[in-house]
Write the structure tokens for this entry.
Amino acid sequence: MGKAAKFSTPLLCHSKLLCFSVLYLFSSLFLAVYFSFSTTKCIFRSSPYDPIQELLFSYPSSYGEHKYALPTTRSSCNSPVYFSDYWVALEEIRKLCSNFTPSALKYLQRTDESFGGNLSFYNRSSYFDHHDNETQIPCGFFKRFPISNSDQISMEKCHGLVVVSTIFNDHDKIRQPRGLGSKTLDYVCFFMFVDDATLNRLHFHNIISKKSKEFKIGAWKIVKVSSESLYENAAMNGIIPKYLIHRLFPNAKYSIWIDAKLQLVVDPVLLIHSLVVRENVDMAISRHPYFVHTMEEAMATARWKKWWDVNGLKIQMEAYCENGLEPWNSEKPYPTDVPDSALILRKHNVATNLFSCLLFNELEVFNPRDQLPFAYVRDKMNPKLNLNMFEVEVFEQVAVEYRHNLKKGGASVGPKLKKASSDLFGNGTLGKCKEYLLKMWGESHD
């Protein structure tokens, strides 16, 4: 009979602590791999490109461009976005731009005291059904946009893709985009429109010299706008580059609008390619994180005093209700009626240019709160807008949001009026929006 075999304990497990550590390590790696490839996560497949390693611009510490970032809590989404290889996306965008046919939309030319003409409701509505390319659309510029001739020439030279932002009344910091591919700055233009108050602050921090004829800060070309000859409200001045971007950059084929409170952390070429080109849409914009009905946004605008003229808000919403605005429902081809318009990606064609002109006309007459007329214009206009309203979690992973510059007394966002009631329907009557609200609340019997 042979001796029974003896199995010695592996040296690795002589120490209980070491065994536990190894088990913990493998468990952690398994969980990390599992969650990384889970389809419920907003995971972006990083393309193997050569990012720009050097710092685009070094700010003085006193400027504090990275103060007061807002935390984000969402970690999953229903529709993850995967980016293509950088070089593939860049080459495809370049080909699309070289074969791009300019929009056939024509614009109304006239002289007026108001930049947008302050059109009547009937006049504005008459342009919603666009079926004749010979019809001239009112689209601002009834007075000169006050920038230098050299800046205008630079803007007209921008072909392909342009990224645009504004800072008026020193409301935000200039933040450099991150994660740019090595050739992006050769093919993408970055333009930041500022007023004198913002320019003075940049000069105060020695970021620019006011003696210079042209200003460049990192990726951004700075364009000075003499905003005193436009609108009294700084937010309305910012609406011009935001929605009339196709007129300021007539040779651009694609554009990205980004609010100055955001810092872009994904290459704009990848964003346009994944969210617009690959989705075959005219425009891409994020859904609002909380609201789906326009009236919810209007009530929040009044409640949180995002616009002081509550009576004006009520008049605006009643005009929309009376002329066909409906609350969101599953029969609409869009997942919501309320966007987060801090990031807008566009292909410049008839549909997006028409939408932008029509929306600007509403904002000029009422107020610069662009989420309020968004669904009304989108649903009423023809041709229809092919729109990608992507998940909030996607928005939070392609841009970092910061608070606006903190100032004593708070920032001025509206006209100087007496403090109005925060209740949009303060007298208890729902007026012309009664049926809208009953449908929104699920109480309509129609």
Observations:
- Residues 86-292+333-415 form one domain.
- The chain has 15 helices and twelve strands.
- The CA atoms of residues 41 and 81 lie 9 Å apart.
- The first helix runs from residue 16 to 36.
